[in-house]
Amino acid sequence: MQASILRPADPSAQYVLRLGDTCLILAQRLGEWCGHAPILEEDIALTNMALDLIGQARGLLTRAGQLGAAAGDPPLDEDQLAFLREERDYLNPTLVELPNGPYGALAGGGRDFAFTVMRNAMVATWLRLLWERLQGSSDAELAAIAAKAVKEARYHQQHAADWVVRLGDGTAESAQRIARALEAQWRYAAELFEDDALDRHAQATGLGPAASGLRQPWLDEMNALLAAAQLAAPAESAFRSTGKRGLHTEHMGPLLAEMQTLQRTYPGGAW
Amino acid sequence: MDAATAATAVDRAWQVLHGVPDPEVPAVSVTDLGIVRDVQARPDGDGLDVVLTPTYSGCPATEVIEASVREALEQAGLGPVRTTLRRDPAWTTDWISAEGRDKLRAYGIAPPGPADGGALEPGTAVLRFVPRAPQALACPRCGSRDTERLSAFGSTACKALWRCRACREPFEHFKPI
């Protein structure tokens, strides 16, 4: 069994790691649809988007390892960072780790395509806005990753938005499902736009924008989308999820167990 | 290696690379796709440095392309070859050559239109849905524009699936990015 590693301590490395974890964990969730999506075209679409996210995560985790090493942390590569950390060393916002349906593996599983569609729309809209700004990052490598990823996020956003409208403005059943998906996941978006020490560090060093600065542009686009889908954003809530700080839901452990089992069991295993 | 020899080696390398197929779309070469960004003779005279750019972040062919580039150049006696990946500037389908577009069409893949159609200025709060009827592509088999998109995503990250209502054949579209 491969021993665990700690995440780098350097704040620049952690900022990049947080974005890399976001892409990685969402890719893992989308990958769970492989062979199970409601139609073949969506099976292909969801796994294609997962592949883009994995590619983005690879670049980001590699860069996080480099930034950490430059600041005196142990040198770590993308595979070590992806597969050998324990739950609290992952810094993705909680939204991307939520299961692909209303109940999750611990409550018997059950996927709901509407949940994935709504989350993809929420996350892709946010990531597209974030990538646009990260193209001007003071870190040239992060800027280059962003310049590539923004084009991919644009496709992801369009595709997810198309489905939100299709389900929201579709049958009574599809409208009820997408409304439930919105109600269940909306409150997790608040975390995306809360500035913490890492965000303030990123803003001060020019590494990335303040998280709070994306809130209004995101709301504008989401509200336009929801209106087109005959939906309305739920009321603001005081609830705050804490994945960005490494405090995750009960859904994260099983996800990591599945994602890590191969590298943990066969250290350094390669295809 | 003197300058003239180095220049010859670089010229030969480009010729060799022109024959290295993309592993996922073997009808076109890596130079047709515009993913070879630079070829330089090593200053110490010991082989070549080749700079490649990935097409999509998660393109699973990236490593295969690196390996096949090295193998082809080394087989041509131009080795050793060191490849590096450069993300900046980001690859765009606008870099696919005119010859590459013809090859794609002949292979049954509709080539991409201009990539800037999808670009948004940073900060632009405009939501664009996938158009229900995106501008009709010409069918690469029969040339008809009576075509429709079946799926925004296809067999590889770079392609969408379309069909032609005139000749009734499905075809792939290399998405502009």
Protein model, in words:
- The complex is a heterodimer of chains A (271) and B (177).
- Chain A is 59% helix and 0% strand.
- In chain A, α1 packs antiparallel against α2, α4 packs antiparallel against α5 and α5 packs antiparallel against α6.
- Chain A is mainly α and 271 residues long.
- Chain A has a single domain, classed as Ferritin, core subunit, four-helix bundle (Ferritin).
- The model of chain A has no long low-confidence stretch (mean pLDDT 94).
- With 177 residues, chain B is α/β, with parallel strands linked by helices.
- Chain B folds into two domains: 83 residues, Fe-S cluster assembly (FSCA) (GMP Synthetase, Chain A, domain 3, 2-Layer Sandwich), CATH 3.30.300.130; 67 residues, no CATH class.
- Chain B has three helices and seven strands; from the N terminus they run αββαβαββββ.
- Chain B has a four-stranded mixed sheet with strand order 4-7-6-5. A three-stranded mixed sheet of chain B has the order 1-2-3, with helices on one face.
- The longest helix of chain B has 15 residues.
- Chain B is elongated.
- The termini of chain B are far apart.
- At the A-B interface, α2, α4, α5 and α8 of A face loops of B.
- Chain B: This is 1,2-phenylacetyl-CoA epoxidase subunit PaaD.
- Chain B: InterPro entries: Fe-S_Maturation_MIP18, FSCA_dom_sf, MIP18-like, PaaD-like, Zn_ribbon_PaaD.
